[in-house]
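Worked example

This section walks through a single chain of length 196. The input is the sequence exactly as stored; nothing has been trimmed or padded.
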Amino acid sequence: MAKESNIIEYTFQDTICYGHKPNYFSLLRMLLKNDSTYIVQLYRFSQYCNMRKTFIYTILRKIGMRKFYTLTEKYPLFLEVRTEIGEGLFFPHRFPVVINPDAKIGKYCIIHPCVLIGRDRGKKGAPIIGNNVFIGNGAKIIGNPIIGDYTFISPGAIITKNIPAGSLVGAGVNNILSDKGKDHVLLYSLNNHQYT
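Given that input, the structure is written out below as tokens.
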């Protein structure tokens, strides 16, 4: 799990990704509204509260997690609070998305709808995804592959093997087209543009 000192920063960072100012009013707003915009923030908030052992944080964690799981059922997203994900996670077109609880996802990843990040049933391990990875609509990452930083995964791709950093992966099974993935990722990077 991410370090405790970073989790509230991650909450704010993920809030910024959706165009909101990073303040505690956004944390209150996410507990009151039934909007898919706040799912990632509730995920971070629940992680943060889970690390605190005081009575008030126990209550806040229960409220946050209840709201989180209510929203993930309403807007189909399978994501567990214990899943390790770096800052800047972004779902530009919302859901459905399935992420295995044991998967690890790096910083500033962009995940489109109908993505599956899952392990191979009956086998050990789950996908490990690096930083600044773009995962296109309907892509499937299955088993325990390691996806390098700045990989661009095109819509419809199926990945079951390790992918080197900076790869451009096309539709089909383990279809590495070139080493120009970073160029494509930067076109969609939140650091350069407000994604729409």
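What to look for: Residues 1-12, 15-22, 192-196 have pLDDT under 50 and may be disordered.
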